[in-house]
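Quarterly update from the structural biology core.
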Amino acid sequence: MTTRNHLAVLMLCGTCLSAPAIAQTSKTAPPTFNGNADLTATTTTPLALKQIALSTEGSPATENWETLPGDMIVRNTTQPSIYPILPAPGTANGTAIVIAPGGGFMVQSMQNEGLDVAKYLTARGYTCFILKYHLNPTPKDPSFLAAGMAKMAASAPKGGNQGPPPSPAMMAAEADGLAAVAYVRAHAAEYSIDPQKIGIVGFSAGGRVSSGVATAYSSTSRPNFAGVIYSALPDRAVPTDAPPLFLAVAADDPLLGGASLKAFQTWHDAGKSTELHVYAKGGHGFGAKVQGTTSDIWLDEWAKWLDFQGFGAKTH
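Predicted structure, tokenized:
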């Protein structure tokens, strides 16, 4: 594997560390997650977390879970589900957030754009649900991954104004996002959530899921707010009752640097509440990483935005 191809995987999966060789382990038992280990494969999720299926179709048995420096990824998802990540007892603020990690609809960055984001939010009283959505099928052998992701990155439209290229998984994943919001609202009392304080945030391909949810909802699946992080809007009209939208991107993002600017203008021109943060450096896939760039503070600024929108005040 070339360093260039491995870096393409790291960039699209939300990591930007060094590029060691891939190693494959036994498929009979998942390894303990080590964020600094080489890419390691297993057929069973290493997450010791409750999982709630959003559909009876598909199976977790199709999944491949792998670790790489600074992240943990899943591939070949056929059954969408959510992982509840709860705040400490007595600290819940009544707001729920569905988190949709990205990865080009080939993988999902479950650590950097999922668990690490949830850790930040639950410490501030938010009840989180990490969404594992439909993905396009990929070979079981992880050795293909670097070349496959590099090819996808190379095929991205120049200028960074468009989202991920259309694929069979894209609309299915959007439907999974809608199902996740609807599930959380239907079970709001169980989690001490205000049914009118349910939002969604997504990253890269996951941002295409969150923007899709923010533009194609029903009364039961409408998010009360949405976050689209280094991603794009779908090509459809902004709803008349569109939720407030938060956008963040790095100016040096080589894949989707211009898409957030276009999304802001679209939402703003429709007369809807939106806020855009553009950071000088951070690249694509900064997620919850600390890189020593101004993108490091985006979670703090989003938390302030949520406070001003009325979603951060403690109610329980």
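The radius of gyration is 18 Å.
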